Amino acid sequence: MELAGDRYLGGIGKYTFADGLEFDEEKWPYCDGYDRRFYTEICLGFKPPGIPQLTNLDPPKIIPEGCYDCGDGFYNPETRVVVDYKHKFLRNADNDEHEWILRTCRRAWDITTEPKPKA
Question: Model-level pTM greater than 0.85?
Answer without folding.
Answer: no
